[in-house]
Amino acid sequence: MSDTRPAARADAVPPETPGGSAAVPQEAAEPATAPPGEEISPGGPVLATVAGAVPVLLGLATLWLAHGLGLGTLTEPGPGLWPTIVAVLLLVSGVALVLRARGTTDTEAFTRGTGVVLVGAASLALYAFLFELVGFEIPTVLVLVLWLRFFGREGWRTTALVSVLTTAALYGLFITALGVPLPHLIVI
């Protein structure tokens, strides 16, 4: 007897399972643990403690900076209310991480990607500093160039176009349309 079923094509859609969805190959159903060719090394309890200490330090610094701003009330909040709330959340989260650090086994070691995160955070801090110093436009273009070209690996043409158009759109929305009193150089 010969088989009368047609041969399966390489580009054919996988057969449907009883639940109605397409069957998934076994290797695709398992979560990926690391990019191909890159092994993730464990960081251990020390790095878990560091990961908890960072938000604790940020929370303490934020609390200290917000202290002189005044909390106000819930109906009339002062400028220090939201920074204080964020500081308390950072402190609670950081302390919880530090307390769990001893028994943690799933912390990853610092990698090259850790440096990118640190540079990204530093760029946002520099952006906030320059924003007050020279206005809205220049720091916005610069941070977008950094993130698009160097983090996102976009081409120079795309980076320049997106950076300038995004800055112009934000200027139009916040300064022109909404009248938000942001420091800016260009007066239209």
Structural account:
By secondary structure, the protein is mostly helical. Helix content is 57%, strand content 0%. It has 6 helices and no strands. It has helices at 26-29, 44-67, 81-100, 112-134, 137-151, 156-177. α2 packs antiparallel against α3 (81-100), α4 packs antiparallel against α5 (137-151) and α5 packs antiparallel against α6 (156-177). The radius of gyration is 25 Å and the shape is flat.
Please state the average pLDDT score: 80
Going by helix content, strand content and strand pairing, the class is mainly alpha
- One letter per element, helices H and strands E, the order comes to HHHHHH
| Low-pLDDT segments | none
Share of helical residues = 55-70%
What spatial form do the alpha-carbon principal axes imply? Answer: flat
Percent strand: under 5%
Tell me about the largest β-sheet: none
Number of helices: 6
The N- to C-terminal Cα distance equals 84 Å
* Radius of gyration based on Cα positions: 25 Å
Q: Find the count of extended strands (DSSP E, 2+ residues).
A: 0
